[in-house]
Amino acid sequence: MNPNKPFIIAIDGPAASGKGTLARKLASHYKFSYLDTGLTYRAVADELLKRHLPLDNEDIAVKTASLIDFGSLDRAHLSEHEIGEAASKVAVMGRLRKALVDMQKAFAEQSNGAVLDGRDIGTVVCPDADVKLYIVAAPEVRAERRYNEMMEKGEKADYNAILVDLKRRDERDMKRTESPLKPAKDAHLLDTTKLSIEGAFTAACAIIDPILAKR
Ligand code: DC
């Protein structure tokens, strides 16, 4: 390992697997910078929706992405369920992905340490990451988490509709030709179905600490 290179933790997994919460907690614990790459796809989808533009026109999507200030994204707004669905649709486009991935790679390289979460971090964005985690959880548990999140925010939520959406999103994210969601060969699998946030954090630290200690 090159000690001058930033220490990178790559976290991938399907929607509502708990990867974002875990990534944020790890970044704060290790004092690393953090990038939620899903937000970058969500920002493009949101801008297209706001301008009533199609979600499947690559030229328009790339142009729209070039106009967004990725430094000041509104996480609360972009986290809305429908924007996630639209993001999954725009995320199938190769040239759009290339533009966003270049920016994500630059982010990873600019700090002492960084945590990035998404679908293709361990496979495409940071293939040389020091630690790769692939987070999974049963679809029913993920739907329940998303349902509870929406209820807490006072939004209208329908468990069955959320479950159907999540399964459709998994399928789209895993079956697309461009950088499909899949674990990197050297990823550590972490199943959070029966784990609390604290439990997932402890399990992740048990993987990361010995690797960090060797630096
Ligand atoms: O993690 P999320 O729910 O915010 O992601 C929204 C969508 O963006 C997801 O369904 C697929 C896409 N995405 C992607 O293709 N690659 C990433 N690295 C992150 C997100």
Automatic annotation (TrEMBL):
Localisation per UniProt entry: Cytoplasm
A Pfam family recorded for this sequence: Cytidylate_kin
Cytidylate kinase domain mapped to chain residues: 9-199
EC number: 2.7.4.25
GO biological process: pyrimidine nucleotide metabolic process
InterPro entries with a match to the protein in the record: Cytidylate_kin (IPR003136), Cytidylate_kinase_dom (IPR011994), P-loop_NTPase (IPR027417)
GO annotations of cellular component type: cytoplasm
One Gene Ontology term of the molecular function aspect: ATP binding
Keyword terms: ATP-binding, Cytoplasm, Kinase, Nucleotide-binding, Transferase
Residues annotated for ATP binding in this entry: G13, P14, A15, A16, S17, G18, K19, G20, T21
Principal cellular location given in the protein's record: cytoplasm
Alphabetical list of CDD domains matching this protein: CMPK
Reaction equations catalysed: dCMP + ATP = dCDP + ADP; CMP + ATP = CDP + ADP
Entries under NCBIfam families matching the protein: cmk
Family designation: Belongs to the cytidylate kinase family. Type 1 subfamily.
Protein name in the entry: Cytidylate kinase
Species per Swiss-Prot/TrEMBL record: Bartonella choladocola
Lineage, highest ranks first: Bacteria, Pseudomonadati, Pseudomonadota, Alphaproteobacteria, Hyphomicrobiales
Gene designation: cmk
